[in-house]
Amino acid sequence: MFKILENKTIAPNLYRMTISAPRIALHRQPGQFVIVHADAQAERIPLTIASADPHEGTITLFVQAVGYSTHQLVNMCIGSYVRDIAGPLGHPTHIERWGRVTCIGGGVGTAVVYPMAMALARAGNQVTAIIGGRTAQLIILAEELDAFCHQVLITTEDGSLGQKGFVTNVLSALVHDETLRPQAVFAAGPVPMMRAVVEMTRPYDIRTTVSLNPIMIDGTGMCGGCRVMINKEMKFACVDGPEFDGHEVDFDLLADRLTTYKKEECRLFKSLQDD
Q1: What is the pTM of this model?
Q2: What is the model's pLDDT at position 60?
Q3: Going along the chain, which residue ranges are E strands?
Q4: Which of 57, 87, 259, 265 is the most buried (most CB within 10 A)?
């Protein structure tokens, strides 16, 4: 059992949860995730470990309430207990000192790139963060990123904060300028966004790492639910990833698999609202 110490709304349908998990906090590395099982009836939910405090024995997760089980999780009160948390899982982010590095987060994907960006900055890289959302209310972690990034560039689709448009508009300006062009790019967010980032960096042969979040069940590679095609070879995101070379990802297959159970999830969520 894992005690909830904080459960705070930071954006519409987005929550920051701090949970007591001493062993996970001790061993977690940037890029790794956990599988959260709120109770016996809930689904197992994969969530990136945004940060960890080994001294306090806590981990911080960002949870977007989009379906039945995520709504169950974020509705849990401070002081209550999560049934199971398995982790840390997945390979840690590969960190080197490349020089100029750009970390791109779309929506809640910003919570995924946050620990990557911190580790990259600590390794001596000059990190530029590009974070985006539909509106200003959906921009998260801008101040936290600004504490260690060279610069934080914000985009919103409605122009309510930062530059109007998409994160790729800002990235385009960087990759087209030899003096600003990054040596490595890290991206997390919606599949169309990651695909656009990859196609933008491909002509320049910029190392581009994407964090994938397909359907997962056990997180150990046994169920096969999170299979993805990487360079025409089947991989499991939970044990082979979750980070992969973006230039090798089959984004068409990934997009199809993410919508496999969309009708069932909508039906289950409606039943929750009707209760």
Answers
A1: 0.88
A2: 95
A3: 2-11, 14-20, 33-37, 44-53, 58-64, 81-82, 84-89, 100-106, 126-133, 151-156, 163-164, 184-188, 207-211, 227-230, 233-236, 243-245
A4: 87
